From TrEMBL:
Signal peptide: none annotated. This is GNAT family N-acetyltransferase. Residues 1-124 form the N-acetyltransferase domain. PROSITE patterns: GNAT. It comes from Maribacter litopenaei.
Length: 124
């Protein structure tokens, strides 16, 4: 499994397919995508999992973790999270965080992230 640095544009089709397939592609694009670090895992030259990392003021937020359905539960997303956590350690950042779908919070807690009481709704 090799993790590669990729462009924001390389993440968009996978984000769209996995997260919001019923909405326009523009829905998965972030205003600050150009400022982020983006990573992907490829199988046979096709991206199967991706994540984006945004660093600001001594902390980092990872966003848009997406893995193709047929590659889920095989460790790809876990490897991407470990990768961005290690990057944050190298950068000596004090905090790493994410927003999560409610049904995915247990997954993130496995990496030492703590659930908060904050909640929001996006896209209905």
């Amino acid at each position: 499994m090799v993790i590669e640095s990729i462009s924001a544009q390389a993440t968009w089709p996978l984000r769209h397919q996995v997260m919001w397939p019923n909405l326009p592609l523009d829905f998965v694009k972030l205003e600050n995508d150009v400022e982020g670090y983006h990573y992907g895992i490829f199988c046979n030259e096709n991206i199967v999992s991706c994540i984006s990392l945004f660093v600001q003021d001594g902390s980092a937020q990872f966003r848009k973790l997406a893995t193709k359905q047929e590659f889920q539960r095989k460790g790809y997303a876990s490897e991407l999270i470990i990768h961005v956590v290690n990057i944050c350690r190298q950068m000596k950042l004090k905090k790493i965080w994410c927003n999560s779908r409610m049904d995915k919070t247990d997954f993130y807690e496995n990496f030492g992230l703590a659930k908060t009481n904050e909640c929001f709704i996006k896209g209905g």
